[in-house]
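ok trying this again, last paste got cut off
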Amino acid sequence: MPRRPLVRLKQRALWDRLELMNRSQRWLAREAGISPGYLSELVNEGRAPSGALRRRLQAALAIDDFDELFALEYEDDAS
């Protein structure tokens, strides 16, 4: 039975949006209610954000489309 996909933050999309908004990673972490270190892990280490955190990130960045900011990674893709 296939496992549920992991959700990964699209690094380039995040940087592009922050640049467009003239905001920093520290600002986004504060807006999303997480530490800058945890946001860095999401961006650089590919940690999978929870559903609630995904919604907070999208709200802070004013992004309605899930696929604009996140990608689904299936177990087979990771190998």
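PB: full thing came through this time. The radius of gyration is 13 Å.
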